[in-house]
Amino acid sequence: MKYGRTYNFSAGPAMMPEPVLEEIAAEMMNYRGSGMCVMEMSHRSKVFQQIRDEAEADLRKLMNIPDNYKVLFVQGGGTLEFAMVPINLMKNGVACYVETGAWSKKAIAEAKKYGEVKIVASSKDENFSYIPDCSDLDIPDNADYVYICENETINGTTFHTLPNTKGKVLVSDQSSMFLSRPCDVSKYGLIWAGVQKNVGPAGMAVVIIREDLIREDLDPKTPVYLSYKTHADADSLYNTPNCWAIYCCGKVFKYLLDNGGLEAMAKRNEEKAAILYDFLDESKLFTGAVRKEDRSLMNVPFVTPSKEQDADVVAASKAAGFDNLKGHKSVGGLRASIYNAMPKEGVEALVEFLKKYEAEHA
Ligand SMILES: *Cc1c(COP(=O)(O)O)cnc(C)c1O
């Protein structure tokens, strides 16, 4: 790796593409003759407006976002979206949630403050190691939406098939899989993603929302910032946005477009994940923590037979130059997050390391 950089397996903030970081570095002191850094720029300036507009246009191209969807850049990260979704979409005050792990649990807890939450499927019985069957959910007629966390970052599961929402609006938290594979936006009412997992720096969420779901008749006490309409009407420039995150994410969108788009990303991500999963399937020491058919291509949790050995591998991995491989405390073991920007070489190097560790500790 150049610049003495490390293979960083963090679940987020996570690696960004090296060519993007190089471009940002080159533009740091004087952005394209503007005489200033993007961090110093007025969000009302022409030069920033172009950065914002290009970022949106490139994301639309990348995901093929239909014209009847708005793209919003909202601060507050993922956690604020747990509240913004029910605040804006609970019209009847009833919503269905699929409980698949740590992040859907947080979304459920937040939604309960605003209305009735019906958990229509759960994988709690097996410590969230699989995706429950969502082909025939019991969805009440007055449900405002069905919510999923499409990739559970901590538990390492992914929906490879979307739930049958029986005509209700599908809302998806795509934070840890955003732009990792092609996505048919028209199947969703709302997609949101905190960008620090698979796109750019922390401090922003991208929200893609079907226009007819944007409401004016919210509780009058709703903070102006928490209404999607505020952001939609102002092209995400109602107040000072996270200009820096918009700029960096815009660069990543362009980079993905220049490198084959989401089809190419999906192919690369499948190849990368297969290197690690194939090893785990053969290993006598390490075991994948997730049911095979529900495995995430982005977050790979795995364990050894004991907590002590887990800790020993984590320490050895650090000494060998890998970073952030410790698993989340709710799952234990190790977790390798291998987002878009993790090079294939990084996954190969990790597998080599794990193989060697296993041979030495057999
Ligand atoms: C990280 C994460 C969040 C929370 O994001 P914050 O920006 O830290 O609030 C929500 N959902 C998923 C799936 C995540 O991975």
Question: Would you kindly provide a written description of the structure presented here, covering whatever features stand out?
Answer:
The protein has 362 residues and is α/β, with parallel strands linked by helices. The chain has 2 domains: 20-258, Type I PLP-dependent aspartate aminotransferase-like (Major domain) (Aspartate Aminotransferase, domain 2); 261-360, Aspartate Aminotransferase, domain 1. It is built from 9 helices and 14 strands. It has helices at residues 18-27, 46-63, 77-89, 102-111, 228-233, 243-258, 261-282, 307-319, 344-360, and strands spanning 7-8, 69-74, 94-99, 116-122, 145-149, 151-152, 157-158, 169-173, 190-194, 205-210, 287-288, 299-303, 322-323, 334-337. The strands form 4 sheets. Strands 2-10-9-8-5-3-4 form a 7-stranded mixed β-sheet. α2 (46-63) packs across α6 and α7 runs parallel beside α9. The longest helix has 22 residues, at 261-282. It starts with 6 loop residues before the first strand and ends with a helix. The model has no long low-confidence stretch (mean pLDDT 97). Residues 12, 77-79, 103, 149, 153, 173, 175-176, 194, 197 line the site of pyridoxal-5'-phosphate.
Short descriptors:
7-stranded mixed sheet, Aspartate Aminotransferase, domain 1, 362 residues, 2 domains, 3-stranded antiparallel sheet, 9 helices, 16% strand, binds pyridoxal-5'-phosphate, alpha/beta, Aspartate Aminotransferase, domain 2
CATH first level of the largest domain: Alpha Beta
What is the tally of helical segments?
Answer: 9
CATH level 4 superfamily of the largest domain: Type I PLP-dependent aspartate aminotransferase-like (Major domain)
Hetero ligands? pyridoxal-5'-phosphate
Described by strand count, sense and barrel closure, the largest sheet is: 7 strands, mixed
Spatial ordering of strands, largest sheet: 2-10-9-8-5-3-4
